[in-house]
Amino acid sequence: MIKFRNTWAEIDLDKIAHNVKALANLLPKEHRVMGVVKGGGYGHGSVQVARTLTENGVDFLMVALLEEAVTLREGGIRTPILVVGRTNPAYAHVAAAYDITLTVFQKDWLDGVATKLFPKPLDVHVEFETGMNRTGIVTEQDLHEVVEHVKKMEQVNITGAYTHFATADEINSDQYETQHKRYHHMLGILASLVGDNLITHIGNSAAGIQYSQDMLDYTRFGVSLYGIYPSADVASLEKVTLKQAMHVHSEISQIKQVHPGDAISYGATYTAEKEEWIATVPIGYADGWSRALQGFHVLVDGKRCPIVGRICMDSMMIKVDQYYEAGKRVTLIGENNGAFISMDDVASHLGTIGYEIPVMLTSRIPREYKLRSQ
Question: pTM of the entire structure?
């Protein structure tokens, strides 16, 4: 994206490299990281992040959509890629053509796969439903039916299996233990049907950090790769030090002194009580900077400056402590003169989780990539 505006997200790829190495060090010997780059690499840029991960020992990637996997392939990423969730079976031949592994958990899905269109064989991983109640094979009978159906399809191969934990971000969750046992029971049945030469992966970021000793061939590290802890509970374990990779900056476009009684922005929801310096910053809700962040703060010269008045589509206003020239840097997320705003700080104000913040920032905010070598 060509950058004309003075609002941007800086992505520090060295911090992503640090995070993947730190997370890999938690795992048992011979176990590896599966890098999760869905959602455009959690808003950081999937191709750029994937390159960094593969340069730092990651040899398997995971996405949520076939489109995301194709984007990686067309971006030059040759590493094996798994698509989790359900892909329209009508497009399974696209996955085969691009050497992309799909997920299977329904016999009916296999009925819709036209293998005659395949240019080469298709690998699939079996997903087991163990307690998340989202997607996955639930019963032993369903598993037998899926396996029997696959065996009749010459160009479809079961190469792996996985599940997803619902409560691994809680400390010592009973449900985690229940899901863990269910998975191993179902995995044993699958191995008896197709052999034990399977790629197995059960852990997300939370499980990989809290229960690293339980992890199998791969652990699907996602949000943690980007320097965001999956929960405050997991962070409190202090098992790994992560570095936030994304910083979001803008600049003051105009500054004015307002007088007592002057109202700011739509709806006049903020009124100055005294002489105040009000600066306009060119970022708004069309950029993913939610209107609900009114009352939150940004950083100027390392000082917290409140967002006043309603956030507009393309801009917002902040109250500053003094006059600043137009072009003065404003930090919305990240470090500024020794002060720091984390993804979790923003999430806390919005009543959500840190995962959501980087992915809600739209493509109108250009991503700029930083490396020590640059």
Answer: 0.96
CB-CB contact of 23 with 221 (8 Å):
yes
Tell me which amino acid residue 229 is.
Answer: Y
Residue 104's CB is within 10 A of a number of other CB atoms, namely 24
- Residues 64 and 168 reside in one and the same domain: yes
Q: Are 295 and 221 part of one and the same domain?
A: no
Q: Which of 13, 12, 48, 49 is nearest to 33 (CA)?
A: 49
Same domain for 218 and 250, yes or no, is: no
Residue 289: give the domain boundaries: 246-370
Indicate if 251 and 338 belong to the same structural domain: yes
Q: Does 60 map to a domain?
A: yes
Which residues carry out catalysis? 38, 266
Quick one: DSSP state of residue 28?
P
The DSSP call for residue 287 is G
Q: Which residue's structure tokens are 């993913």?
A: 288
Looking at the fold, whether 194 and 295 belong to one and the same domain comes out as: no
CB 37 within 8 A of CB 46: yes
For residues 54 and 164, state if they share a domain: yes
Contact 345, 244 (CB under 8 A): no
Q: What is the pLDDT of residues 154-197, one digit of tens each?
A: 999 999 999 999 999 999 999 999 999 999 999 999 999 999 99
Domain count, the chain: 2
> How many whole angstroms separate alpha carbon 108 and alpha carbon 230?
34
> Quick check: 161 and 125 in contact, CB under 8 A?
yes
CB 311 within 8 A of CB 270: no
Check: CB of residue 361 under 8 Å from CB of residue 37.
Answer: no
Residue 373 banded pLDDT, cuts 50, 70, 90: low
| Assigned token pair, 263 | 């109202």
pLDDT in tens, 116-152: 999 999 999 999 999 999 999 999 999 999 999 999 9
Query: Which residues contact residue 181 at a Cβ distance below 8 angstroms, ignoring those fewer than 6 apart?
Result: none
Structure tokens at 203: 């852990």
Containing 144, the helix (H) or strand (E) segment is helix 140-151
Residue 268 belongs to a domain: yes
Residues 204 and 295 in one domain: no
